């Protein structure tokens, strides 16, 4: 099977490298063009105006594709391990894959529909991407614990669960604060009147 072939570990590494480059490159272009302030802009703000919007959209769509490939490899790996030790139901592994694919679809939506061009679609894509991502990593952490000690160490499981907990904790304020903000433009100066809708 593909998941048992040597060398597939490069796919998750490529996903992390490519995604990091997407954020860094679009951030650099946006700052150099004067489209965002250099101090901690929203990720989506760095992909709103041309030329960085094209780079952001292209690179994030590739990241979404790499995410799909990575999740499918993980699915196949768990299925193969499960043949010998039956540590998790196949339906749980499949459900986890579907949730992960939903997150990747959300990433594609975020990349395709810019924050200010189609804000409602962009926000739905972000909610799907981040929400599905939190559920996916939590399910993968649970699957990892169930596969201990044959296929994972408890140390790796604890690290995965810590990342899941941090993701869950971070997701809550993201929802709360995002619901309080109505963005219609990126450039705003203190004292400027804001239109209320």
TrEMBL record:
It is found in: Endomembrane system. It comes from the Eukaryota. Its main location: membrane. Keywords: Membrane, Transmembrane, Transmembrane helix. It is a multi-pass membrane protein. GO terms for cellular component: endomembrane system; lysosome. Residues 8-184 form the CWH43-like N-terminal domain. The chain crosses the membrane at residues 54-77, 97-118, 124-143, 155-178. One of its GO terms (biological process) is regulation of autophagy. Belongs to the DRAM/TMEM150 family. This is DRAM1 protein. It comes from Tachuris rubrigastra. The gene is Dram1.
